[in-house]
């Protein structure tokens, strides 16, 4: 493809993308195709001879779009959103054009330096404590996902603990001690943490302990719960080294009790505390949520995904650490081919030392474009609008307390509900038979809603019971779609429960 052909193809692609976005509300939100739909439509080998764009492009509409779940559809209320925006797409376009896998500053100084600038912007925008700014000992680095941020911090925490425990030892004696210490390490998290945390422990090669949270505490990790778990682990001769705390748990958007956890951190200063704010951290752009960040300066790291709620397309996970040296000590390895004068000078940042892979994409561009195109005020508007839609939805649910109950929220645009059986039919609230019936009607209504294809929801388990999660946070979320979602839920729930 030469430049003229690219110009024509790119214009056609842009037109198609705009058309896709504008017509989204008219199509089902989920793919209406069976598994394995694609390969019968495509040849079994790559073409031997070049094909023009005019042959390639039509396959997007014919074969690819029918197999998409439309995350930008206003009826997409599943999981958490993966928002995007036009400025973000422009960032991707330039990034792809420059294709600079900027592992070292020298690879493309602009990639590194823009990342440092925008991460400081994000840090200030979210009112995170100054310890996370690049000017001191901390700093921010863009990771691919919240899971990657967790495992990166876990590895850094592991190495920090190993170094402390093996201080003063050398040679074989040290090697033996390292193996012994590693065998005793335990990572922890509340039982509401995302599976990325136990998975991180699997990858880091350490034990994992889930701390039971209580319904009375709103399933939040408390200082007491954490302290007891740490003591219990130490009582067994094991060594706690890392804890995930959560701002906005995946199931119900619970926020751990950071003030109390900060007190525990004072008693166990060597245990790394990470704040996983993958989704709800975006709300920190609004002053009314910034009190949550008050104690984050006591912790070791914080991560939020701009690619969930903040209009930057996947991937853009913003990890901030209090001491960048913790990452560098664990991740830095410099063979001769990576050695260069700028690295040796110590005057530059080489982000390869702050992450697991070597190469990295130029993701700062899309963040920069979004921050400038929307301004902080534009992002605040988006967050407040979608939070408001969550409140609207919860209000509608409350008006039908005969048919539904809210089990959590509305919080950060998430409302978690259950369908209720007819009163008196299956025992009383709390009885085992009643719980079974709640699970049954909730499951059946939920499945019927998703089969309909107009809106798309996910379910979860809260306190051992099935519940439906409704998230009104996507970039195209609208009042009329929230009302429509409620109407569909009522229709299906009434059918299942038998009131219509
Ligand atoms: N942490 C929380 C609280 C989440 O809700 C999620 C995903 O929804 C993750 C971590 C994992 O995010 P990622 O897909 O960026 O790894």
UniProtKB/TrEMBL annotation:
Its cofactor is pyridoxal 5'-phosphate. It comes from the Eukaryota. GO terms for cellular component: cytoplasm. It holds the Pfam family Pyridoxal_deC. It comes from Aulographum hederae CBS 113979. Keywords: Decarboxylase, Lyase, Pyridoxal phosphate. One of its GO terms (biological process) is carboxylic acid metabolic process. Belongs to the group II decarboxylase family. GO terms for molecular function: carboxy-lyase activity; pyridoxal phosphate binding. The modification N6-(pyridoxal phosphate)lysine is found at residue 308. Gene3D superfamilies: Aspartate Aminotransferase, domain 1, dopa decarboxylase, N-terminal domain, Type I PLP-dependent aspartate aminotransferase-like (Major domain). PROSITE patterns: DDC_GAD_HDC_YDC. This is Aromatic-L-amino-acid decarboxylase.
């Amino acid at each position: 493809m030469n430049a003229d052909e690219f110009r024509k193809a790119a214009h056609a692609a842009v037109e198609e993308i705009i058309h896709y976005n504008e017509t989204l509300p008219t199509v089902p939100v989920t793919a209406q195709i069976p598994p394995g739909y694609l390969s019968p439509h495509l040849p079994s080998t790559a073409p031997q001879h070049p094909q023009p764009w005019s042959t390639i492009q039509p396959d997007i509409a014919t074969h690819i779009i029918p197999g998409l779940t439309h995350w930008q559809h206003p009826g997409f209320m599943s999981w958490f959103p993966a928002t995007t925006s036009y400025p973000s797409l422009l960032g991707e376009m330039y990034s792809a054009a420059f294709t600079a896998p900027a592992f070292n500053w020298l690879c493309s100084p602009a990639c590194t330096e823009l990342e440092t600038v925008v991460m400081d912007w994000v840090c200030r925008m979210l009112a995170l404590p100054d310890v996370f700014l690049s000017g001191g000992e901390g700093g921010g680095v863009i990771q691919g996902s919240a899971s990657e941020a967790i495992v990166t911090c876990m590895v850094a925490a592991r190495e920090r603990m190993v170094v402390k425990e093996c201080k003063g030892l050398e040679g074989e004696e040290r090697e033996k001690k390292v193996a012994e210490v590693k065998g005793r390490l335990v990572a922890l998290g509340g039982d509401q943490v995302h599976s990325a945390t136990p998975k991180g422990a699997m990858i880091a090669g350490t034990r994992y302990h889930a701390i039971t949270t209580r319904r009375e505490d709103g399933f939040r990790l408390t200082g007491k719960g954490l302290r007891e778990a740490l003591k219990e682990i130490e009582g067994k001769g094991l060594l706690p080294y890392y804890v995930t705390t959560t701002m906005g748990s995946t199931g119900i958007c619970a926020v751990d009790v950071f003030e109390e956890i900060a007190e525990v951190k004072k008693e166990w200063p060597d245990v790394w505390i990470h704040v996983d704010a993958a989704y709800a951290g975006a709300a920190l752009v609004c002053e009314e949520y910034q009190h949550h960040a008050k104690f984050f300066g006591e912790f070791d790291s914080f991560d939020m995904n701009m690619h969930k709620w903040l209009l930057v397309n996947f991937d853009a996970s913003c990890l901030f650490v209090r001491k960048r040296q913790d990452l560098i000590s664990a991740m830095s390895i410099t063979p001769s081919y990576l050695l260069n004068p700028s690295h040796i000078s110590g005057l530059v940042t080489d982000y390869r030392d702050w992450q697991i892979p070597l190469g990295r994409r130029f993701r700062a561009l899309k963040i920069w474009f979004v921050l400038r195109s929307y301004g902080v005020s534009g992002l605040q508007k988006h967050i407040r609008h979608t939070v408001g839609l969550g409140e609207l939805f919860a209000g509608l649910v409350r008006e039908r307390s005969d048919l539904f109950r809210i089990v959590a929220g509305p919080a950060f645009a998430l409302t978690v509900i259950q369908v209720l059986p007819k009163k008196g039919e299956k025992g009383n609230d709390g009885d085992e038979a009643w719980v079974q019936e709640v699970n049954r009607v909730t499951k059946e209504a939920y499945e019927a809603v998703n089969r309909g294809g107009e809106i798309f929801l996910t379910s979860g388990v809260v306190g051992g019971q099935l519940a439906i999660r409704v998230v009104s946070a996507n970039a195209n979320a609208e009042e009329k779609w929230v009302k429509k979602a409620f109407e569909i839920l009522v229709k299906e729930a009434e059918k299942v429960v038998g009131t219509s």
